[in-house]
Write a structure and sequence with these properties.
The chain is mainly alpha-helical. The protein is 59% helix and 3% strand. Helix 2 crosses helix 4 and helix 3 packs parallel to helix 4.
Length: 124
Amino acid sequence: MSDIGMTYEINEINLSPNDTPVDLSDVLKNIEEASTPSLDDWSTEYLKLQLHYTENFTVKELSKICDYYEIDKRKKRKDELVEDIIIFENADENKSIVETRKRLWFYIQELKCDKYFKKYIIWD
């Protein structure tokens, strides 16, 4: 059979008496475990983001991110702002707003680099 440039064939395999059948639930469980991030993955990602925000952003820039996410920023030091942003961005329910924010920040940088548009962009 052929479907959109892909060819496949289905063959029935007879198991020998020594072979044990594979339980589909075990296969699905293994796939789920492999795709679930471990605690080590989370802590590594946290540390990478912490370094990124600490080294590459000023307090003023972090405050803009907090404003966008509607995170309270009053009387917080830089490291506290970074922590709040990382926690917000790592929450699954915030993935959409985080992607939107990153995309819009990218657009601002592109406009600021453009010969024509840079005179119209005020982003301190």
